[in-house]
Write a structure and sequence with these properties.
Elements lengths: L1 E5 L5 E5 L5 H11 L3 H15 L6 E4 L3 E6 L2 E6 L6 E4 L1 H17 L5 H13 L10
Antiparallel strand pairs: 1-2, 3-4, 4-5, 5-6
Helix pairs in contact: 2-3, 2-4
């Protein structure tokens, strides 16, 4: 189980109960950071692949490469040859939704609605997980 907390410096951080969860936590707080747009992209891609609307998606950030395929979310740290994580899509989506809620709880009033409206306007479609956001 991954949980999200504010670090002593006020930046998002994560806690985990299983070592296998660390890649997803590090990816979210390290590369996605507080970018609502990036997190909404990752959620949309994961849901689109899970639902069969897209065969695969990928993303590259500061130090992580994310591959979304029907068999899961696959994360590879480009700065460390041996740090990677593989997660089933439903579980990865659930963790990303919790990170979304954490960011919303620690942002200004209306942040969620503004980020979602901006994402949907830019992509000219409703977010596929709109009801969960």
């Amino acid at each position: 189980m991954i949980s999200f907390v504010n670090s002593v410096h006020g930046a998002p951080d994560y806690r985990f109960t299983d070592e296998s969860e660390t890649a997803l936590g590090a990816f979210l707080v390290g590369d996605v950071q507080t970018g609502g747009d990036w997190l909404l992209d990752m959620l949309a891609w994961a849901e689109d692949v899970r639902a069969g609307r897209s065969p695969a998606e990928d993303w590259s950030g500061n130090s992580w490469v994310a591959e979304v395929r029907p068999d899961g979310l696959h994360l590879f740290d480009t700065l460390s040859d041996d740090w990677e994580g593989h997660y089933a899509l439903p579980g990865a989506i659930e963790v990303m939704l919790r990170y979304w809620a954490f960011l919303a709880d620690h942002s200004s009033a209306g942040w969620k609605q503004r980020e979602l409206a901006k994402w949907e306007a830019k992509r000219s479609r409703p977010h596929p997980l709109r009801s969960a956001l």
